[in-house]
Structures are given as structure tokens and as C-alpha cells.
Write a structure and sequence with these properties.
106 residues, two-stranded antiparallel sheet, alpha+beta, 6 strands, single chain
Length: 106
């Protein structure tokens, strides 16, 4: 591309690519990548990787809540016997065989 045109294109005013999620940012096209950067950007609606590597898409502003209450790979303790593992291990593998798990009366 011609440098002159490239500069004009990069100077175009654009909205955030995740505007539909609620981001109100607008700025120059050349600044969009920095705005969306997961580590240093200021877009709270951009997807970031879960620190527990659960592979679920998480918006930056939801990361803290995700890590403490909805991540399947968060640290979790069985409330019946205090066995510790990830939530997915406790709920899928441990509870069906937990000796202290409540069983309804017939």
C-alpha cells in the first residue's frame, strides 16, 4: 500500500470490535489493537484467557468472578468431607463416590 493511503486508513475513526458486548470505545484504527490487547489494553469486554486454562471465553471485566465462582478448573473443596480438587473433579468424579454425600431417603 502507498504510505499516504496507509496513514489515512490507520487514522480512520472506528468503534471497538466488541461494541455489541457493551464497549463504548472509539478511536483511530491504529489504536484498536492496543485497546483490545488482553494484557495491556483497556477494553473490559475483550476476551482474555482464564488463568486456570479452562478454555472458556471470559470477558476481562468478568475474569475475577469467573475465577471464584464459575470456572470448572477453580480450586474447590467438597463441603461434605473437605476433599480438595478442581470443581469439575469434585462435582463429576468425587461426589458420586463421596462417603459423606447426602443420599435422599427412599
Amino acid at each position: 500500500l502507498n504510505i499516504k493511503y496507509q496513514r489515512r486508513i490507520l487514522a480512520l475513526e472506528v468503534c471497538c470490535t466488541v461494541k455489541d458486548r457493551g464497549c463504548e470505545w472509539s478511536g483511530k484504527l491504529e489504536d484498536l489493537e492496543a485497546h483490545l490487547d488482553a494484557k495491556t489494553g483497556d477494553c473490559e469486554y475483550a476476551d482474555v484467557k482464564c488463568l486456570n486454562e479452562c478454555d472458556q471465553p471470559v470477558e476481562k471485566h468478568d475474569l475475577s468472578s469467573h475465577l471464584t465462582s464459575s470456572c470448572p478448573k477453580r480450586e474447590f473443596t467438597c463441603q461434605y468431607c473437605n476433599f480438595k480438587a478442581t470443581y469439575e473433579v469434585v462435582s463429576n468424579d468425587h461426589w458420586p463416590q463421596c462417603s459423606f454425600y447426602p443420599v435422599p431417603c427412599p
